[in-house]
Amino acid sequence: MGDAPAAELDAVLGGDAWDVGVSLEGAPPSTGPIRLGRNVCYVVLAVLFNQEDAVLLVQEAKPECRGTWYLPAGRMEPGESIVAAMRREVKEETGLECEAVTLLALEERGPAWIRFAFLARPTGGTLKTLEEADAESLQATWWPGDPRVLPLRAPDILPLLDLAARYRRSPPHPATLPRDLPCTPLCLRLLVAFTNHTGDVWVLLATAGTPHLPVVACGTSPSELRGGLRRPVLQLLGGCLPLVSSPGSLGLLGLQHQAGGPGGADGICFNVVLSIPSSSPGGAPPEPRDPAFRWWQVEEGSRRGRILQRLCAAATVPIRS
Predict the structure, then answer these.
(1) pTM for the full model?
(2) Model confidence pLDDT, tens digit, residues 250-284
(3) Helix runs in the chain, H state only
């Protein structure tokens, strides 16, 4: 396999970044660079607690939801990093400064809408009051009780509050934050693993150039924009592997993005893991139909153990479609 793919695999397993390169597997026809406001929409959201375990909520000022309560959230702006966008939204809507702890969830409806939900901690500032109401929010509060008794803008924040509470009690995955590395397309780097009942592990590699983890781009046609991030993954795997059952769910290991990337592109690479189910206890992975792919058996014990651990659903940032 050589050193480079092993280093790439270790970086991805550890939540780090790795250069995407220029040649992608299963890439759709180019429709120009990825640009916020044109063919993608990124949203940030933050869950913060104080020392008394009260959660930070904001009262909405927008006419369509005025007076309701929600977590601080908003759209990312061109030229921002993902974490900077989250910190700006928290400051504008609540008056508080904060720092990111980890991603809690990646929520998506395809490239047309991707939301990054963070767990963050307050680091300063003054809580916004009604006297400071503006177009961003009416006020902010530390809410000590059950948020369901409030008129919420939407109940979709409740599962995120549960995730945050569980993470604070016992983190199921390492702290996961965006890494600063440019990426022109919106794409997914795939750690596709095959395991059998005896604990053997294989990883799918793309063979063009130096063997590497496959990278598939998300298309930006109208149907692809709303097709979900899983769609290009299934298209790639369906074309190269004789699958007898559906692959496992996607889990996020890490992501990379750089504000003001090449040519102003707002691309992101999501490093994801998924498993190919085995049809027999001691079985080997299905032979690829496409010579552009091959399996590599992971024999080094600690690396194999890290892959098996990350394949557990709770050991990655959940991707919710």
Answers:
(1) 0.94
(2) 999 999 999 887 777 899 999 999 999 887 666 88
(3) 3-13, 82-94, 157-169, 222-225, 230-240, 301-310
